[in-house]
Each structure stands twice: as C-alpha cells, then as structure tokens.
C-alpha cells in the first residue's frame, strides 16, 4: 500500500548540499517552555558525552573544520581538538572499518556519515565487522560504536541520496537501530547510543535538523538518557493505533489532529528504537484500539511496517477489527521531479485516509496528482 | 624509473639498517643472506617478469613490455643482495634460543595445518579451511617479535597467526571442531579466530576487511598515548593480508590514513603469488607491491618470505619503527602456499614446476640447514622439538574431539555485550528485555 498522494505538505525548497533550514513547526503547545532544535540536541549530546568520557571520539567527513556537513558537530573541534574530532578522507570503507577496529580495542568512536546513503560504501564493516564480532568472538570483543547521520528522503536529491535504511539495518542481529524524532529523542537516544556497549545505527533526518521542539529541564540534564528498545506513546487515543518513527511521527501527529476533528481518536506511537522493536507497547496499543496503521518512508517490501504487522498478526490477531494498513514510500527509486517525489513519500493525508479506512469511514478517492 | 628509484630512496633514509645503501636501492633489505646455500634464488614473480622469453611456467601470462624497466630495479637489488650474502656467515643472525623458538613455532604451524587437513577429510571440521603451509616464515618472523599487548589482525588463513600469537593449539583446534572449548566457543570457526587475551582481533573472511580494523587498533594505541595520556602505550598492530587484497580499495584507503596519521602499524603482505586461481601477475598492473608504500609516504620493503631470518630482520626494523612512533611500514613478503587456496580448492592452475621450485625452498628446511651450518642446534635437538610438537598437536586433537558441543542455550548468547541480549527468549518468543545497560533516566 504505497503512498499515492496529492497534497504538498513538506515545504518546497532548493535541494542543497548543506544545511537546510526549515521553518520551525511545533507540534505541542508549550507556552513559555524551552525549545531546542534537533541539531542542537544532537550537538549537545555529543558534547556532553565527549566531555564525560575521553574515550569517545567523533570521526567522519567534514566533522571538524567544516563543523559538520549539517553543522551537527559545530564547535566540537575547538573544544576537543583534532585528535578527538577527526576529519577523515573520503573513504567510508576505510574510516568506518578503522573506527570499528578502534572500538574492538577499547575506544568509543562515533562515526558520522554525511548521509546514510554513503554508509553503503561501508556496510561491510557495519554488518560484518561491527555487528557480528561480539558473537563470533563469543563475547570477547564487544564493539561500542555509533554510526550516525541523516537517513531517509531529503528533498530533490534524487534516488541515490534519498533512501531509508531503517529496515536494512534493523534486519541484522548484533545491531541496535535508533531513529529519533524530536529534540528529546535526539538527546536521550544519542547519549544512550554512545554509552551502549554495542554497535548502534543512529538514523537522523536531514529535514528535522532545523526543527525546534519543546524540551524539558529533565531532558536538558547532562545525565539524561533514554532506554534503548522502548517506544513512546506520543499521543493517546482509543480508535486506531498509528505507529511511526523519525519524521513520520510528526506526520502521524498532524494526521491525529485532523482525525480528532472528524471524531476519530488516534493513538500515535513513536518507535524510537527500530531494533530492538518494542513489540509489547505496539501490541498493547492495538489490543486497545483494535486497528493499526504503520507509517514509514522506506520501501514497502520487508519493511519496518511489515515486521510490525507480522508481530500483530502473531500476537494480537484476534484483537484486530480491520485489516492493518501500511503507509510506506513508493516501491520505486526516489524520482527527482518535485511532483513525483511528493508522490513517492508518505504525506499526512495518506495517514488520515488509511486511519479512516480502518475505522470503516468513507474516504474520498485520491485525486490523481 | 628514475622517479621510482628516487622516491624509494627518499623514504629509505629514515629506515636504513646500514648507512652504505646506494641511491637506487629500494628501502631496507637485510644486509646479509643467511641461507646462502639455498639452491633456487629468491625471485618468484619478479624473475618471471624480468625474463622476456616466456618459460613454461609463465607462458600463460601476457605482459606489457612497459613493465619490465620497473622490474629491473628489483632484480638489481636482488643481485646486489646475493653478492653481499656471501660475506657474513661467521656471525649468525640469531642465538641458539632464538633459533629454537623460531623453529618450534614454524613446526607447530606446519604440523597443526597438516593435522587440520587430516581432520577436515575425516569430517571433523567443516566449511572453508585455508591452510598456511609454506608461509610459516612470515607468521613466525613477524609475530614472535610482538608483545602480548600488540595486536594481530589476520585473514581467513588465520590458524597459524593465532598459534604464533600464543593462542593455545587446543583452543584453536577445538574452535575448528566447533566445540565449546574453542577460542570462540565454536561461534567463530576457521576464518574467525579471536582472542582478546592475546590481542588477536580476528580472523576476517573478506578480502581487505581486516586492514581497516587493524588500522583502527593502531589508531587506538596512538589515541591512548596522546589523548588518554597513557605514556607507556607503545603497542603495535600487524595487519596480515595477501597479494589479492592489494588490489582492493581498502588497502589503499588505509595506507593513506596510516601514513597521514603516522599510526603504529605494519602492513604485512603475504604475497604467495596466487589469489585462489588468479595469478598475481595477471591481476596487478605493477606486481611489486612494496612500491605502493613510498607512494603513500611510508617505507616499502620487499623481503624473501621463505627465509624466516630475513623476514625477522625486516620485522624487527618495521615493528621498532612503529613502536618508536615513526609510523607505518609496508612489507611485501614473497612466499608461497604449498597447498591449494583452501582444502576445497583442486589447485589445477598453478604450474607443477613453480610448486616444485618453491617446495625446494621450504622455510623450515632452510632454517634447519642454517642452524646446522652455524652449529646452533643438533639434529637431536630439532628432532626433540618435532616430537614435542607432534604430541602437542595430537593432544589438541584429542582435547577437541573429547570436548562438548556448544549447548543449545549458547545459540542466542553473545549477540550483544550483555549476554542475555535481545532476541528470541528461551520460551521461543521474541524477547525485548531492557537489560540494565540500556536503561535510561527517563520514564517512558
């Protein structure tokens, strides 16, 4: 059930290799509360963990003098110096493998991929060197490493720069795969990832870096950290469960607002962790709402939504009142043309329509784009 | 040609064993040739290249004429070295104890691998088993110079590297048998030997995969010294790989980074002339791998990998250089494997004459001969070592055979650092526990 859409939600923009600043959108009212961009959340998490543990280092292309291709590592070179914030040559296989070797031998490297698309050049080391070593060595060699960078569709950058790798990495034992949505997620999950003794794939989203979210005092504390493997119920509801991660959580929340006006109470689950997957939270929610919609930017076949559906069918089949609905990216490489690109990624309307279908509400037929 | 010689000599200067080196000599060759009576000369691929008329063993390789000038340089050096080799026989390069240690390690490697072949054919081990026979001088010559804290990163041909690094034969054999007493409790296998205690960081089954990991281990040594202020951390990493790997991008990526950051690593190429069935000469535009060192700003050394004493001399210099913080070295050890690529390889492409030529240069026989000629050991002493190793290998087999298979519960262990990990629980259902190490501070 690939997304076929008609309405423009994402702000148009010139595809650019660099920072994309997006008008700040806030999804929950927080009069007077503190706000923080996802970029600053990631930056502060890196900063605090590097400050707390001298064996943490950051390595990647343009992370140092350039301050990060998306400025996530801004200021860290000045603070920690070139021995801990390391500008690498453009050699993904080489520096990723090297970071894995450093992790074997006692350091805690954070590897930044300029985008996760480039991790394809290094996937051998992520899977074969990092994910499998603890098992192959029977627990002798643990690999405390974080692979992070923007994942998923950006805007106008074409097929090779617009792909979601959540399902790829989440299918591999030995990896933990995290996908933050807001600033609290970004801080709490990145800090957890760096402290974790295992390899973590940390999937950020380019289009979220510039967004501001309210952030609590608790989340700003340097000891703050989120559990790996636990989803968060972002919005409670009783009629339908919408499961999403990363940028799609924002879309799901928007959809829930629209649905609420039409009398449908949607529960929105922010997965946070793709692997391990919090099956318990998802199943509990579906047993309550009896309906499920999954949303992801990735391809449909063998995707994260497919895994969630399998879990529901296995564990909560008798609770379902309607067929599950999967909203995913279209089953094609990402097209360049802006109108085609819009049709290839899920939009808020797709989620609204799918949720209504599960509730047997009438849904207007999608207009051709 | 001139440029090549110049760049090579430039890097020689910081890396010379003796001060009398001429300008056109490539970096570091052992000053003497300890095994002077070795019947066939150390030439291997380079001899084949320097001959313009195709001989029976080389006729299948077509070569462009433009390669020959580069080869002449090595030939000259080889000649020069050979002429010098007659000089210093009266002064043996090793003590008796050192000689016996080298001999024992090489015999252990050989006997262990021969036993592996037997056990493989008897169905005691399975999958791909790559044996090291013929290359022992490289493992022994290098690894016996290391400290326990130094790292070794190997390939799929890793049993003997593990043994040289001190992993007990019992643990290696048991691993091959897939037993729970193996060095990785049967979870690694032939191509994935690990030992944290001995700083053996694998066993990598893919071409080129181990090189970045080794570079990372070397990076860690430097990081510990310079950032974590562990002043005494002078640990060195050896990365072993073959001639086929030298055409893989990760090799070049890591030569660059290691030289760029002056990492304490030695890249040890075990050039056995064949990547399964692909001749080195048929796969590589310039077959002199050592020349790639100077191209990246590090010394490149070509050494006779069938001569443990020469390997040892180069190893001493290169490891010392790394330990002193002077950066990486690329060492090309020209060697030969006496068996097929793996035990599943019919080995039909290598010329019998070529095999015979190298068989006659067996590194173990050569060392034996050297020790006799220099009165470093008696026949009886070496026989005693042979016997001891035979018993040790027999014992390893018995131990492995009697050891238990991994318990069913072990299947799901060690996926993550917390042995409970995530995954399928004992009840067969997916388990998403929240082990302590991932507990956050926030209520969710």
UniProtKB/TrEMBL annotation, chain A:
Main location per the UniProt record: mitochondrion
What is the protein's name according to its record? Pyruvate dehydrogenase E1 component subunit beta
| The keyword Mitochondrion is assigned to this record | yes
- Per its UniProt record, what SMART domains does this chain match? Transket_pyr (SM00861)
| Cofactor(s) this protein cannot do without | thiamine diphosphate
Task: Give the EC number(s) listed in the UniProt record.
Answer: 1.2.4.1
Which InterPro entries does its entry note?
Answer: PDHB_mito-type, THDP-binding, Transketo_C/PFOR_II, Transketolase-like_Pyr-bd, Transketolase_C
Q: Which NCBIfam families match?
A: PRK09212.1, PRK11892.1
Record's function text: The pyruvate dehydrogenase complex catalyzes the overall conversion of pyruvate to acetyl-CoA and CO2. The pyruvate dehydrogenase complex catalyzes the overall conversion of pyruvate to acetyl-CoA and CO(2). It contains multiple copies of three enzymatic components: pyruvate dehydrogenase (E1), dihydrolipoamide acetyltransferase (E2) and lipoamide dehydrogenase (E3).
Q: Enumerate the Gene3D superfamilies for this protein.
A: 3.40.50.920, 3.40.50.970
Give coiled-coil spans as residue ranges. Answer: none
Species the sequence originates in: Coffea canephora
Subcellular compartments: Mitochondrion matrix
Molecular-function GO terms, alphabetical: metal ion binding; pyruvate dehydrogenase (acetyl-transferring) activity
User: Which keywords does this Swiss-Prot/TrEMBL entry list?
Assistant: Metal-binding, Mitochondrion, Oxidoreductase, Potassium, Pyruvate, Thiamine pyrophosphate, Transit peptide
Catalysed reaction(s)?
Answer: N(6)-[(R)-lipoyl]-L-lysyl-[protein] + pyruvate + H(+) = N(6)-[(R)-S(8)-acetyldihydrolipoyl]-L-lysyl-[protein] + CO2
Tell me the ranges covered by the Transketolase-like pyrimidine-binding domain, including all copies.
36-211
| Cellular component terms per the entry's GO annotation | mitochondrial matrix
One of its GO biological process terms is: pyruvate decarboxylation to acetyl-CoA
Q: Which PANTHER family match?
A: DEHYDROGENASE RELATED (PTHR11624), PYRUVATE DEHYDROGENASE E1 COMPONENT SUBUNIT BETA-1, MITOCHONDRIAL (PTHR11624:SF112)
State the oligomer form and interacting partners.
Tetramer of 2 alpha and 2 beta subunits.
TrEMBL record, chain B:
Keyword Coiled coil belongs to the record = yes
| Enzyme Commission (EC) number | 1.2.4.1
Entry keyword Oxidoreductase: yes
- Bias class Low complexity marks the residues at 45-58
- Give the region (Disordered) as residue ranges: 27-67
Q: Which cofactor does it need?
A: thiamine diphosphate
Please list the residue ranges annotated as the Dehydrogenase E1 component domain.
Answer: 105-406
Top-level division of the source organism's lineage? Eukaryota
| EC supergroup of this enzyme | oxidoreductase
Entry keywords, A to Z: Coiled coil, Oxidoreductase, Pyruvate, Thiamine pyrophosphate
Which reaction is catalysed here? N(6)-[(R)-lipoyl]-L-lysyl-[protein] + pyruvate + H(+) = N(6)-[(R)-S(8)-acetyldihydrolipoyl]-L-lysyl-[protein] + CO2
A Pfam family for this UniProt protein? E1_dh
Instruction: Extract one GO molecular function annotation from the record.
Output: pyruvate dehydrogenase (acetyl-transferring) activity
SUPFAM superfamilies tied to this protein: Thiamin diphosphate-binding fold (THDP-binding) (SSF52518)
Query: What InterPro entries does this protein's entry cite?
Result: DH_E1, PDH_E1_Alpha_Subunit, Pyrv_DH_E1_asu_subgrp-y, THDP-binding
Q: Which residues form a coiled coil?
A: 375-402
Output the GO biological process annotations, alphabetical, semicolon-separated: pyruvate decarboxylation to acetyl-CoA
Polar residues bias locations: 35-44
Q: What does this protein do?
A: The pyruvate dehydrogenase complex catalyzes the overall conversion of pyruvate to acetyl-CoA and CO(2). It contains multiple copies of three enzymatic components: pyruvate dehydrogenase (E1), dihydrolipoamide acetyltransferase (E2) and lipoamide dehydrogenase (E3).
Subunit comment: Tetramer of 2 alpha and 2 beta subunits.
Tell me the protein's name.
Pyruvate dehydrogenase E1 component subunit alpha
Source species, please? Coffea canephora
Taxonomic path: Eukaryota, Viridiplantae, Streptophyta, Embryophyta, Tracheophyta
